[in-house]
Every structure is written in structure tokens, then in C-alpha cells.
Specification:
With about 260 residues, this protein is of the alpha/beta class. Helix content is about 45%, strand content about 20%. Bound molecules: D-malate.
């Protein structure tokens, strides 16, 4: 793990492999370890960069964590690593950051990978829920939100068959600093709507979604697929929200095939 100071926060990241750069951005309230199943196979052919977004993992917590700030951190990290162009990929909140990145720095994006995410902003009700959740996390810690979220992250079959994976995901979430999680919740609540901007995306885009994802359902990915001219949609059956962890082989094959074409 390396650490670098960008935009007044220390950002932790891993940088593995050589070749075209592939930046993978984790969801909320996760960290770079959620890409463990991708880093080793994909770094055979690509330079895979996995940052901890501000407030998560080993990165520093800051009072604010907007999607634009996180995207600017990633761009500054690329500058410091000498990476001009990259495939920018993100899952869920990482996808919100990837969309913000394209908006802010389109010339730095070779391709986009949008996994289990959506272009829409939160509804007013959704925003209010996030603000409440942020307060709850600051008062009570991560445990409550982890218990609520966990059943939505993995499919029932995985929960039954793979308790080790459930434990890993739970522990990853529990490790998140409550202040970092609260800042990310406020950041997601305030994020911009990208629906009308999808038609401006000119780079090849792979959209991946777990067929059983209740957080960012297949319909959200279908909307992005309709909006982005050069896009491919892959629905991974037998996977829920963290489709890259649940079905890593299918996920990695989709990414490799997309990047090779
Ligand atoms: C995530 O996995 O990043 C979050 O569930 C996204 C969200 O809450 O909108």
C-alpha cells in the first residue's frame, strides 16, 4: 500500500501491473480491498490502480466527500503517478465518482466501467434518509448500517453457501471510519444527476450489474445503456450488489473482453 497527499488529504492506493491503466473505485462503505478478486488477474495485462476514496480504508477522513472531490482526488493521483489516460471504473458510489470524473476530466478517460451503479441523483426522500443515516452513524457507529445493508449486498444463495464471504464484506464495512462514512453519505445525497449527460459520454463504456441487485437494480443499468451511445450491458445472474465479489470470474471475463475489444 502506498500513500500520497492530494488536494490536502492523504490517499492510500495500490498500483499493480504494467500496461494500460485501469483505475477501480470502490463503493460505500467499502475500501480498495473489495477489488481483491480483480487486481491479481487483471494486473497481468493492465496497470491496476485501486485507491481508497477519501474517508475510507487507509485514506484520510475529511469533513466533505463530494463525488466531485473524490473524482478530483483520483485525477490528482493519476497526475502524480504519471498516468495521462485510464479506464475509469467504479462500483456503486465508485460509479457515481466515475461519472463525475468523466464530467470533469473527459480527456483523461479512455473507457468507462460502470458496475452496479446509476446515473440518477437521489430523490428528496433518499437525500433525507442519507442525512439521517449519517447522523445515526456518527452517534452509534457503523454496526447498525452494516446490518441493514448486508442482506442487500449479496444474493441469498451466497449468504447461505459462503459465510466466509459474508464475514469479509461485513468486516470491511465495519472498518470504515464513521466520520468518513457520514461525509460520503452527505456527498452522495448532494450528487448531481447525470441522466441528461449520458449522451455526452463518447468513450466505450461497459455497464455491469448483478441480476439480483436491489440497491441499483438492472433497470438503472438499462437506462445508462440506452443513454450512452457506445455501451455494452452485462447482467450477471446469481449476483447482487457487489457483483465483482460474488461472481469474480464472470465479472473479470466481462472486463477483459471489453478492454481487449
Ligand atoms: C454503494 O454500494 O456504494 C452504495 O450502496 C451506493 C448508494 O448507497 O447509493
Amino acid at each position: 500500500m502506498e500513500k500520497i497527499r492530494v488536494n490536502n488529504v492523504h490517499i492510500a492506493y495500490e498500483d499493480q501491473g504494467v500496461g494500460p491503466a485501469l483505475v477501480l473505485l470502490h463503493g460505500y462503505p467499502f475500501n480498495r480491498s473489495m477489488w481483491a478478486e480483480q487486481v491479481i488477474p487483471l494486473s497481468i495485462d493492465y496497470r491496476v490502480i485501486t485507491p481508497d476514496l477519501r474517508g475510507h480504508g487507509d485514506s484520510e477522513v475529511s469533513d466533505t466527500a463530494t463525488m466531485n472531490q473524490m473524482a478530483a482526488d483520483v485525477c490528482a493521483l493519476m497526475d502524480l503517478l504519471g498516468i495521462r489516460h485510464a479506464t475509469i471504473g467504479g462500483l456503486s458510489m465508485g460509479g457515481y465518482v466515475a461519472l463525475a470524473f468523466y464530467d470533469l476530466f473527459p480527456n483523461r478517460v479512455e473507457n468507462l466501467l460502470l458496475a452496479d451503479t446509476r446515473a440518477q441523483a437521489d430523490t428528496e426522500e433518499g437525500k433525507a434518509t442519507r442525512v439521517e443515516q449519517a447522523k445515526k452513524i456518527l452517534a452509534e457507529g457503523m454496526a447498525g448500517v452494516v446490518d441493514t445493508m448486508l442482506p442487500k449486498l449479496l444474493s441469498p444463495a451466497t449468504v447461505t453457501k459462503n459465510p466466509g464471504l459474508v464475514k469479509r464484506v461485513r468486516e470491511m464495512m465495519l472498518q470504515t471510519n464513521p466520520q468518513g462514512a457520514a461525509a460520503a453519505l452527505r456527498g452522495m445525497a448532494g450528487r448531481e444527476d447525470h441522466t441528461e449527460r449520458l449522451s455526452k459520454i463518447k468513450v466505450p463504456t461497459l455497464i455491469v450489474v448483478g441480476g439480483q441487485d436491489p440497491i441499483t437494480p438492472v433497470a438503472d443499468s438499462e437506462k445508462m445503456h440506452e443513454g450512452i451511445a457506445v455501451s455494452k450491458l452485462v447482467i450477471i445472474e446469481n449476483a447482487s450488489h457487489v457483483s465483482n465479489i460474488e461472481q469474480p470470474e464472470v465479472f473479470n471475463d466481462a472486463v477483459k473482453e471489453f478492454l481487449e475489444s
